[in-house]
Design brief:
44% of the residues lie in helices and 16% in strands. It is of the alpha/beta class. A hairpin with a 2-residue loop joins strand 1 and strand 2.
Amino acid sequence: MTAPAYTLIQAASAGGVLRLTLNNPWRKNAIGPVMVNELLHALEAGMADDAVRSVVLTGAGDAFCAGGDFAQMAGAEGAPALEPKGDYADLLLALANATKPVVARVNGHALGGGLGLVAASHFAIGARGAKLGTPEINVGLFPMMIMAVLQRHVSRRRLLEMMFFGERIDADEAVQCGLLNKAVEPDALDAAVDAVTSAIAAKSPITVRLGLEAFAAQDDLDLESALPLLRERLAGCLATDDAREGVMAFLEKRRPRWSGK
């Protein structure tokens, strides 16, 4: 199958990692309908590719994503060349519900809609010097959709401060808020991201998938609803070949040989 001809992202797969790069550096990787649609296509392809174990999302140049592209919002951009897959809300859902771990490699500023991508990813590593924030209120807008993913990481009062004051925080404070797993010096960013993807690659593919599916399914449930669901999901996990192999390898004091089944 011929790979789609992307115009505003780059997709490259190597060593089990699908790297998706927002490739609009002259606009600080501002995101609009075409980029959203291309990301949806690329994520769908990555989830269907057995060779892909994890996805890294990053930006070209010195920014991760400066937020929404106002020119595209005003209709200055042409229609998507690829079949329409959905809008920005669909993209946040695709990231949050991805069946393979998505790691945000925050190489520079992540603002507004760009911060939403970070918050919707499963893991996020940021370079010191990057600023993360919700400046929409400064131009008469409000970070409506990204609230849904930000509130999963940031406390209520801190999030209200960020949204109503249009604050930008540095990478170290973003770790304290729960928006980033780790903040590192820029020259250590790739090694930190590689450590995450390598750890994922060492685990059973089917267990990772089942775990992510269960995590997403129970995320908004109360305890009385979550525990029965997770009991069922555990039974499904125990029935896999990899679960049996993992237990046997533990008892035999050897490394497991995952089959992905």
